[in-house]
Amino acid sequence: MKLLIATLLLGVGVTAAQADVSAAARAFSDGQAAQLEGNHERAAQSFELAFNIAPAREALRSAVRARQLANQLPRAATLAHLLLVQFPDDAASAKLANDVIAEARTRLARITVTCVPKCTLAVGARAISLDAVPSHVVFTNPGHQVLEVTFDGDRSVTREVTLRAGDELTLPIDPPPPSRVAPAPSPATPPMAEARTASGLPPLYAITGGVVTLALAGITVWSGLDTNDARDAYVAAPTRDGFTAGQSKQLRTNLLLGSTIAAAAGTTAIAVFWTRWRGATSPAEVAIKPTTGGVTLSFGGRF
Fold first, then answer.
1. Taking 80 as the threshold, does the pLDDT of residue 9 lie above it?
2. What is the pLDDT of residue 206?
3. How far, in Å, are 63, 142, 220, 258, 263 from residue 269 at the CA level?
4. What's the pLDDT band for 51 if we cut at 50, 70, 90?
5. What is the separation, in whole angstroms, between the first and last Cα of the chain?
6. Residue 27 pLDDT more than 80?
7. CATH of domain 108-176
8. Superfamily the domain 18-106 falls into
9. What CA–CA distance (Å, rounded) separates 146 from 168?
10. Burial group, residue 139, by CB count within 10 angstroms (0-12, 13-18, 19+)
11. pTM to 2 decimals?
């Protein structure tokens, strides 16, 4: 069984390698076709793609030459340095790389970026390498340049430099600290009492209801006393008119009593369930005082 699994894995690896070689060969052929058409920039892009798929000295040498023919010396010199590092023992590759770098040293500036951990580098928003490595060497035109170094986790560092022809600059770059995302503040939960009083009727409605209820109560008391006086007068001197007057006053008293009870119930409901008492510092004060010939009703409060 182990032998069968090893054979299967080997077959998968061979198939993937063959696919990479085929893709690199197609990209290399596209580069040759573009070069024959005189489109050196597209040829260079195809040769670089072929090298990225399956690193081969022929593809990288062709990319260096294509960049030279496209008058793109900074990119040609950058690829030439890579060619010299990757294939130092190949005579043809070393000669081409050294010739291009010798020309670049008098006309361009050289920047070496080192980073731990590995990083990618972009100069002027153009990526220098697709792979994260601990060191990048790039040739640039003299003048102001913007370098963007990116680490894992999309952490990036930007550096701006101004160079002259022939300058050689080494920049060690440290990764920025991981960004800390502050937790969103949780909404404060209002106390239950405040939650209940956040909405509702103003206290004036409950107070008005209380005043009306007390007024009806006062009138009801007066009507009851008046009815008792009519009953006593009828007992002392029974007459039909006295009887009729007593019945009328009794009915009035009953109606006033019912109205008073209804007003009291409604006022209580408004005060307990629908009134926003927040802000009131003391309850309303209501008083009924008997006076000669009736009653006196008064109320007051502070808010």
1. no
2. 73
3. 89, 85, 22, 17, 10
4. very high
5. 90
6. yes
7. 2.60.40.2070
8. Tetratricopeptide repeat domain (1.25.40.10)
9. 16
10. buried
11. 0.55
